[in-house]
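Many introductory courses stop at the sequence. We go one step further.
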Amino acid sequence: MSIYPSQDPSGRAPADRESPDLLEEAARRLADELPRARFYIRITPPHVTYALLGANVVVFIAMIAVGYFMFGTLNGAEDSRVLALMGAKINRLIAVNGQVWRLFTAMFLHIGVLHLLFNLYALNVLGPLVEGYFGHARFAVIYFLGGLFGSLASYAFSPVASAGASGAIFGLAGSITVYFLRYRENFGARGRAILTNMLVVIGINLVFGLAMPGIDNWGHLGGLIGGAMVTVGLLPRYETPVALLPGNYPLGERPRGLQQAVWVALCVALLVLGVQAATDYWLTVY
């Protein structure tokens, strides 16, 4: 016996029957029209980013004040005495005097208004992205370790005094590149566009740094590599929650606190070893 509907002599199916293909198509359309569970990534507000923006502005104002009240100049942000006093990266003082803290304080100093404004703009663009996807704590770790790796690279390979948040900002650029490299397909066209834009911006800035005098390209490169390396171990691992009803649900994140803490500890250990190696070298020079 045939499982297909019988046909009249004209070849038309009876009006009260439907073919299996039409029934499947109708079922698919109905399923598409029904409300479904949808998932999204919960974005963290950029509170730490705003705090860092404010801190950089406050330190810049302090540099102007120190220059005026201590050295009688209104151009304290570009005065070598002010920069040295407030913690610029100066290799001799780090190696001979043991002032390793300069690798950190240099991240908050800026040599001139344009230097400050450029870094504030970059931080305001990249900071909310990284903090949004990684959260406050991991963002702070990526920012500061990226900045410290930038300072380390500058200390190890450049004898010139330097300052600025550029190393930390390049660390954020490396971080967001790693993130969208991992999840570019999940974000579709937007994710691929962000990844492409980041690679172009990084390339342009590195070439510009090589072409222009007075730019600490070692600090940029060290921050970029350091931020990317730290991010590899801090990437969120998303998991889909159980959703029984239609609606919008935030993606969960697999807990990996111990693994991430171990990774950060390894990065810090590598940073310490790098500082020691650079110091041993500069002590043979000075």
